[in-house]
Q: What sequence folds into this?
């Protein structure tokens, strides 16, 4: 049985005997560094008072705390000058900026810190200690964070989020002691910040025409930016703006094409991935354009930092641009990579001139890095030892690896335990070098996050694990205890209306065909979660008790439930019963381990892959080689058609097969060619290309068929992975 952290036994003498009283300790996330529990409670009652003994400046976090207490208990806190039931006091001898102590005794609560920021964190811990009835367990806490940089990045360009939605997230960040909000304001798909000198950036570049013809977009006025920044400051959060450059600038170029290499015309992009068009690094006017923009942006943000992106900048346009080639020659540069470094250095001078420090994604390493730049590392797949190398150079590093910090990735790719085990500091690094690793950030790229509900789903509960990793530091073998505390946070998230997702994969769904009967089995993977399903043409869920027999093709929906509340997202599977279900299958090469799904039977288990996600467990991924799939039956079959599907998403390194060849055999040994279908035979359904071989006349006595998928080859010129092998993703081989 899992409780809200710990259960302790208070043993008291009663009438000469013993009785045990169970007391549930509150769930604290992040867990304080040092904590000693008592064996009783302090009770908040009507008329409870709070004294904030620091009258020289704003009372950071106090208004939020009073609101939280009222929401939770119904009590109204009254402010007094001295000696409150709750007293907050500045201790000038405490040097750590974010440290605090919290002492709950039988008759009062006291929080002490060296700064208002520390007092605010003490209040955030206190609100997690208070029960609905106003009871606060006796406890002594001394606490300070392990890392100074505890951040969250939100991309508002692919999809737009209102200032009210951002403020909700700032409140949640403060509750879990996150202190950096990285605001990704510009992209190919939309420009989101008012620049008065260049009004077309919001009149035109903030809006895109979607593929269905609708308009999508939005932007923040400078006054709205100031309002959000002020709101964040009251919660101890530093807001760091990002204007991404020199790539990811198509939205800006749609309004000001003169700063491109080709002169356009351009439209605000309505697709995802990496666009080939970038700022012209050989045009002196480009630098003036960016300087004017930054000199409007930077004064809006009191932060010491300005993020300039620098990631995923294709060099194709520069290679063909006379101005860029002339700049390379004039500056004595070797190639276009050094041209990007030259560009970044010029922008850093502008940033530094305005009293800021520059941050860039780890691509700014290419061609040479300045001594003062801060690097935000995301490409853990690019160089496993990159964090160590950057720190050894003496540059500060913000560690945001895709494998643990990309919360736009689905929960099956990056689950709660993976995030909990995140440690920004490589093993064996000396303290003198490790000091350059300032902390980390989770990133929420919004290609597939169209609204706040989905943002909640992707962010929580994983943000809790990141909070713990960056504030407390995680412990080997500590995940089960941490997970107990996560369960204790769900009531708070429910109260705040956070539509949180699951902590890990909710269920496994497998299929099996035996003696002509086709069944679906569901394995629940999270304790306390019940699985229900909704048969085709049904409007209500049925509790899953035993394997489901499928007698016809159709769609079945599966949903996890924690009590009466849905937990995780509804899984929709289209099942197509066909002749291939009864075959045995052999693959010439194994799929990528990460995308093996249920093994070879994935391609004949009747489940059709999603039209929008290659990570649904039905798409098998293969990298760098052709794939031969051979289906063999015990009894000869009559074949009329064979249908295969392939998924395409170039931004995720997935290309279509160059072609698909079909063969058949009547003895299982000698194969005859049926046909080869190239990419010109494709029929688009979302991101899925369907290839169907319709036979002119049926073929009888077929013992085996073979489907050969030709590799998509190397990733094309200009792609961030240019020259690397592409993936092909395939699902069900449907035999009719």
A:
């Amino acid at each position: 049985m899992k409780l809200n952290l710990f259960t302790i036994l208070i043993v008291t003498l009663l009438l000469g005997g013993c009785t045990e009283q169970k007391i549930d300790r509150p769930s604290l996330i992040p867990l304080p560094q040092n904590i000693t529990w008592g064996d009783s409670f302090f009770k908040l009652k009507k008329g409870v008072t709070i004294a904030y003994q620091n009258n020289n400046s704003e009372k950071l976090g106090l208004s939020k705390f009073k609101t939280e207490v009222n929401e939770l208990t119904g009590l109204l806190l009254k402010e007094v000058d001295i000696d409150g039931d709750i007293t907050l006091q500045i201790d000038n001898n405490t040097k750590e900026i974010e440290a605090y102590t919290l002492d709950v005794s039988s008759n009062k609560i006291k929080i002490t810190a060296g700064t208002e920021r520390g007092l605010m964190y003490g209040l955030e811990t206190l609100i997690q200690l208070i029960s609905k009835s106003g009871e606060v367990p006796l406890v002594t806490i001394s606490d300070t964070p392990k890392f100074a940089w505890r951040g969250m990045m939100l991309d508002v360009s692919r999809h737009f989020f209102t200032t009210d939605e951002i403020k909700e997230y700032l409140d949640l960040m403060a509750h879990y002691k996150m202190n950096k909000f990285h605001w990704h304001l510009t992209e190919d798909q939309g420009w989101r910040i008012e620049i008065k000198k260049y009004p077309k950036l919001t009149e035109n570049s903030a809006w895109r025409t979607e593929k269905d013809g609708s308009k999508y977009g939005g932007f923040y006025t400078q006054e709205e930016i100031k309002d959000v920044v002020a709101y964040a400051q009251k919660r101890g959060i530093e807001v760091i703006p990002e204007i991404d450059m020199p790539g990811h600038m198509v939205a800006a170029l749609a309004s000001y094409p003169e700063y491109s290499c080709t002169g356009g015309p351009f439209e605000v992009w309505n697709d995802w991935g990496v666009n080939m068009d970038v700022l012209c690094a050989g045009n002196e006017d480009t630098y003036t354009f960016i300087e004017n923009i930054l000199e409007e942006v930077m004064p809006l943000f009191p932060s010491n930092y300005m993020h300039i992106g620098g990631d995923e900048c294709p060099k194709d346009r520069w290679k063909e641009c006379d101005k860029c080639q002339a700049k390379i020659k004039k500056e004595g540069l070797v190639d276009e990579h050094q041209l990007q470094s030259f560009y970044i250095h010029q922008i850093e001078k502008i940033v530094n001139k305005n009293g800021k420090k520059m941050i860039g994604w780890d691509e700014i390493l290419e061609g040479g890095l300045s001594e003062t730049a801060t690097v935000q590392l995301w490409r853990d797949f690019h160089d496993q030892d990159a964090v160590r190398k950057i720190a050894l150079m003496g540059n500060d590093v913000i560690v945001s690896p895709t494998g643990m910090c990309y919360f736009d990735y689905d929960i099956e790719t990056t689950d709660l335990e993976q995030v909990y085990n995140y440690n920004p500091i490589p093993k064996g690094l000396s303290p003198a070098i490790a000091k350059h690793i300032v902390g980390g950030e989770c990133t929420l790229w919004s290609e597939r996050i169209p609204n706040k509900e989905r943002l909640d789903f992707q962010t929580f509960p994983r943000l809790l694990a990141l909070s713990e990793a960056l504030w407390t530091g995680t412990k080997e073998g500590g995940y089960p205890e941490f997970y107990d505390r996560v369960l204790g946070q769900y009531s708070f998230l429910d109260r705040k209306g956070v539509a949180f997702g699951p902590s890990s994969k909710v269920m496994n769904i497998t299929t099996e065909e035996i003696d002509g009967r086709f069944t679906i089995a569901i394995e629940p993977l999270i304790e306390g979660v019940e699985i229900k399903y909704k048969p085709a043409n049904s409007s209500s869920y049925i509790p899953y008790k035993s394997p489901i027999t499928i007698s016809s093709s159709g769609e079945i929906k599966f949903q996890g439930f924690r009590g009466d509340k849905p937990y995780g997202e509804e899984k929709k599977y289209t099942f197509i019963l066909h002749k291939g279900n009864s075959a045995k299958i052999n693959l010439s090469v194994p799929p990528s381990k990460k995308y093996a799904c249920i093994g070879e039977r994935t391609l004949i288990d009747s489940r059709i892959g999603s039209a929008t996600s290659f990570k649904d467990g039905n798409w098998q991924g293969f990298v760098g080689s052709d794939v031969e799939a051979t289906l063999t039956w015990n009894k000869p079959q009559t074949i009329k058609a064979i249908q295969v599907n392939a998924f395409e998403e170039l931004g995720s390194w997935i290309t279509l097969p160059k072609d698909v060849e079909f063969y058949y055999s009547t003895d299982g040994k000698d194969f005859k060619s049926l046909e080869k279908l190239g990419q010109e035979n494709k029929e688009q359904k979302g991101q899925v290309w369907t290839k169907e071989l319709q036979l002119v006349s049926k073929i009888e006595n077929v013992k085996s068929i073979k489907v050969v998928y030709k590799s998509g080859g190397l990733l094309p010129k200009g792609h961030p992975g240019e020259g690397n092998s592409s993936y092909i993703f395939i699902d069900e081989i449907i035999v009719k």
